[in-house]
Amino acid sequence: MDETKSPRPDGSTRRAALWATLVAVPVTVAVAAFALAKLAPEAPQAQPDASASPRVQSSAPVQMAAPALDARPTLVCRALMSQLPDSVRDLPQRPVTAGPEQNAAYGDPALTVACGGAPPVVPPTDEVWVVNKVCWHPTEEGDATVLTAVDRETAIRVRVPKTYEAPLQWVTGISDTIVSSVPSAAKAPSGCSA
Q1: First-to-last C-alpha distance (Å) of the chain
Q2: How many domains does the chain contain in total?
Q3: For residue 95, what are the contacts with CB-CB under 8 A and spacing of at least 6?
Q4: How far apart are CA 168 and CA 175, in angstroms?
Q5: Using N-to-C axis directions, what is the helix angle for 71-83 and 172-181, rounded to 10°?
Q6: Which residue segment(s) compose the domain that 122 sits in?
């Protein structure tokens, strides 16, 4: 009687089979999941929540006056405008109708920056606020708060619409630019020490 023995796999064959199984199973599962994801019907798109969607920003030029400036304020304002940021917080910069060398605008409704013009007059009893080393005097004008830098060689006014709460928070980046590009005034109102 001839007994034929079937060959027994040795250890290296078993290890190779184990590795092949360990690789093949996850690859098969991944391919199956990918195929199911591609073949499954798409879920209907949920309507975006209007309150959560970003505000639509106008890119139309903002109406601004551009009074004639003397030589020194023109030079200072050009330096300031060339250094202003591309956005103020989440408001992108927009074009202006006149005087881009002395005016800038951001967002919709427009937050505006105007450089030059008459020097600010601050009554001695009025409040002034220092934001990033710039002294601001707030006044209310209709639907906006106007912040005027009162410690700089050249007048700078930032008009912040009432829709933007906490107006002083909107001038932090602008203040940094003013410090680096507009010299301090020889005299500033009391209360403007940083």
Answers
A1: 108
A2: 2
A3: 59, 60, 61, 62, 105
A4: 10
A5: 130
A6: 71-181
Task: Give me the chain's average pLDDT, please.
Answer: 82
Q: Does 77 lie in the same domain as 35? A: no
Q: What angle do CA 159, 161, 162 make, to 5 degrees?
A: 130
pLDDT digit string (tens) for 16-62? 666 666 656 655 655 555 455 555 555 444 444 444 445 567 778 99
32 and 127 co-located in one domain: no
Query: Of 49, 177, 158, 176, which Cα lies nearest the Cα of 110?
Result: 158
Same domain, residue pair 162 and 81: yes
98-122: pLDDT as tens digits:
999 999 999 999 999 999 988 888 8
| Cα-to-chain-centroid distance, residue 53 | 16
| C-alpha span between 185 and 117 (Å, rounded) | 15
109 and 177 fall within a common domain: yes
CA–CA distance, 130 with 149 (Å, rounded to integer)? 9
Task: Please check whether residues 20 and 77 belong to one and the same domain.
Answer: no
